Q: What sequence folds into this?
């Protein structure tokens, strides 16, 4: 009762009742017995109500809701990206073979790179792959997207059919099929033999070994095509109408309207495909059996890192290679962004 009186009437009324009760010894004696308990109970109830209000405000906050829904990504990003990156950076300065404790060796793993001929060969093979695969893939994706954006009843069906290779193109099964297509007695050699061209040992000759892998990547153009198609749909139709009124032909419209309007999307696809190209692994691993044969002509840098880490158990050197790969990708990405001002058109650009 006293706690309720304190809660409802405030401290002044409560103090007044105590003063009045002191004039009656019997009442004062009873109040004196329950006074400590009443004060403690009132304090706890007040703290409970304050804590509940604070909790309710915290849960109803928009930022709190955002953090709760993004928590799975945050935990995964920390657990599978940030923390492994920090650990690998430490390992890159150590001699570590998984079975024994890491031994600090400083910059030895990085200086070893400058004398590693296989590292230089893997970098060259990867750069060669990126230089051919990325432009061909983007050009083919843009061509198909331009065709599919023409009004047609089969537009949605054709777009889904063309996107299908991107869904299954990176799988082990498709890579094995691709290996059979380009085998010595495969379908590709059968077709070129029909035209009198000598049979080619695609995966036995280092001059040709990387080309089937490039073609496999170009075949997986679906994701870039969808993005290009969405970009083409956003170009105002009035631009094309004005160009046709002025007598512009199809080629001029494409190069003077479509390409400039799509240049930001081309930049996005270019950066994403460059990053993806430098990390290519599955195709080379399956087709070469994890060796990068013949003569390291398919030994991409990602495959080289994998072999150093999990075949030779040189985890320290593999970590150094991984960080060099990260720096290479970052440097190329920066160069692309810095040079984009010369060829990327933004309709609304701040001065």
A:
């Amino acid at each position: 009762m006293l706690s309720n009186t304190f809660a409802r009437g405030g401290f002044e009324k409560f103090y007044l009742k105590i003063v009045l009760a002191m004039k009656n010894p019997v009442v004062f004696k009873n109040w004196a017995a329950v006074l400590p308990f009443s004060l403690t109970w009132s304090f706890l109830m007040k703290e409970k109500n304050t804590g509940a209000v604070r909790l309710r405000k915290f849960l109803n906050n928009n930022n709190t809701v955002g953090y709760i829904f993004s928590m799975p990504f945050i935990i995964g990003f920390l657990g599978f990206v940030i923390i492994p990156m920090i650990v690998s950076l430490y390992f890159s300065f150590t001699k570590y073979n998984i079975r024994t404790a890491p031994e600090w060796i400083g910059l030895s793993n990085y200086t070893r790179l400058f004398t590693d001929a296989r590292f230089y060969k893997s970098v060259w093979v990867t750069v060669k792959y990126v230089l051919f695969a990325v432009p061909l893939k983007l050009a083919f994706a843009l061509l198909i997207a331009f065709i599919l954006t023409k009004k047609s009843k089969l537009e949605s069906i054709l777009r889904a059919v063309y996107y299908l290779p991107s869904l299954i193109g990176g799988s082990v099964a498709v890579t094995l099929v691709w290996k059979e297509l380009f085998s010595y007695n495969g379908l590709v050699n059968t077709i070129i033999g029909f035209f009198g061209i000598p049979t080619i040992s695609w995966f036995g000759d280092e001059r040709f070994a990387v080309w089937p892998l490039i073609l496999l990547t170009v075949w997986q153009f679906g994701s870039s095509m969808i993005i290009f198609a969405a970009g083409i749909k956003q170009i105002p139709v009035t631009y094309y109408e004005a160009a046709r009124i002025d007598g512009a032909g199809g080629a001029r419209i494409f190069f003077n309207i479509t390409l400039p309007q799509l240049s930001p999307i081309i930049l996005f696809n270019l950066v994403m495909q460059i990053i993806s190209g430098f990390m290519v692994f599955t195709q080379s691993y399956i087709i070469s059996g994890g060796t990068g044969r013949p003569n390291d002509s398919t030994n991409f840098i990602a495959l080289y890192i994998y072999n150093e880490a999990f075949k030779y158990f040189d985890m320290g050197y593999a970590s150094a290679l991984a960080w060099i790969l990260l720096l290479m990708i970052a440097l190329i990405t920066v160069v692309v962004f810095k040079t984009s001002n010369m060829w990327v058109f933004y309709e609304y650009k701040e001065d």
About this structure: Confidence is low (pLDDT under 50) at residues 1-8. The longest helix spans residues 25-60.
